[in-house]
Amino acid sequence: MMATESEQVNNREGKSKTAIGATTYSALVARLDLKFTAKRMEQVCTHKSYEQGRLESNDRMQWVGKRVLNLFVGEHLAAKYPNLSVEMLQDLQHAYFGLSSLAEVGRHFGMQPALRWESVIKEAPEVGLTKVLGKSVQALIGAIYQEQGALVAKDFVHKHILGTRTLDVESIMQIKNPKLMLVSLTKQKGLARPVARILKETGRFTSSPVFVIGIFCGAKMIGMGFGSSLKMGEYRASKDALIKHYAKEIKNFNLPSVGEENDADVTFFPPKYQDSSAPA
């Protein structure tokens, strides 16, 4: 019998109620070089919406994985970008490690065909896929943490999550009034008030002048910009100074969790699981 359009969409998106073979989960475990069973991977890929929640889902693993991910990503970002405010760190983490970003990681892993879930909108079965896939990646991290411990989970996050992201700090910075922000920042740091100075100019009395402006804090130039007007040049120079400050990267840094790796006497004992029976 020819599959309906809805069934074809379900099969493409990994949502069909047709049983997914154990080999699918075994292959996924092998591909990611994990040390737990295909049965555990099946649970990782099972959303609470599947079969109306009658089967054991990835809910608890996702809850744990979200916090494990936040810990390892958070400490990495805080150490790498020491000048970012808490709000900027949160925006950076959401932009590059939120559910949409994690869904892309899940597609790269090949998790999408293994997902078991059901959309709340029957007429549009693809709605919600990104959220479900992103949460499944969180569940995967939670399962690794529960099965193999914090150090293995940390290595996985650094290799597959942090190691695959190219961060653009400037993209999450909302700078509406750079001059005012820069004055506030220098005052907060106890530095001299920033001063704009013309570094170079051409065509002042023509229809297309160019002004190169430097922003100085004392004798040190902290930003530079250009524009067709003095105001535009100062705006861009102030913004450049802010970006250089907040986006400053520390190349070599230590993470708080590194101390755990040096304790050779620590042995990880995975918890014993007992599958709950499905309600009658």
TrEMBL record:
<dbReference type="InterPro" id="IPR036389">
    <property type="entry name" value="RNase_III_sf"/>
</dbReference>
<feature type="domain" description="RNase III">
    <location>
        <begin position="41"/>
        <end position="149"/>
    </location>
</feature>
<dbReference type="GO" id="GO:0003735">
    <property type="term" value="F:structural constituent of ribosome"/>
</dbReference>
<dbReference type="GO" id="GO:0005762">
    <property type="term" value="C:mitochondrial large ribosomal subunit"/>
</dbReference>
<dbReference type="GO" id="GO:0032543">
    <property type="term" value="P:mitochondrial translation"/>
</dbReference>
<protein>
    <recommendedName>
        <fullName>Large ribosomal subunit protein mL44</fullName>
    </recommendedName>
</protein>
<dbReference type="Pfam" id="PF14622">
    <property type="entry name" value="Ribonucleas_3_3"/>
</dbReference>
<dbReference type="Pfam" id="PF22892">
    <property type="entry name" value="DSRM_MRPL44"/>
</dbReference>
<dbReference type="GO" id="GO:0003725">
    <property type="term" value="F:double-stranded RNA binding"/>
</dbReference>
<dbReference type="InterPro" id="IPR040030">
    <property type="entry name" value="Ribosomal_mL57"/>
</dbReference>
<keyword id="KW-0496">Mitochondrion</keyword>
<comment type="similarity">
    <text>Belongs to the ribonuclease III family. Mitochondrion-specific ribosomal protein mL44 subfamily.</text>
</comment>
<dbReference type="InterPro" id="IPR044443">
    <property type="entry name" value="Ribosomal_mL44_DSRM_fung"/>
</dbReference>
<dbReference type="InterPro" id="IPR044444">
    <property type="entry name" value="Ribosomal_mL44_DSRM_metazoa"/>
</dbReference>
<dbReference type="InterPro" id="IPR000999">
    <property type="entry name" value="RNase_III_dom"/>
</dbReference>
<keyword id="KW-0689">Ribosomal protein</keyword>
<dbReference type="GO" id="GO:0004525">
    <property type="term" value="F:ribonuclease III activity"/>
</dbReference>
<dbReference type="GO" id="GO:0006396">
    <property type="term" value="P:RNA processing"/>
</dbReference>
<keyword id="KW-0687">Ribonucleoprotein</keyword>
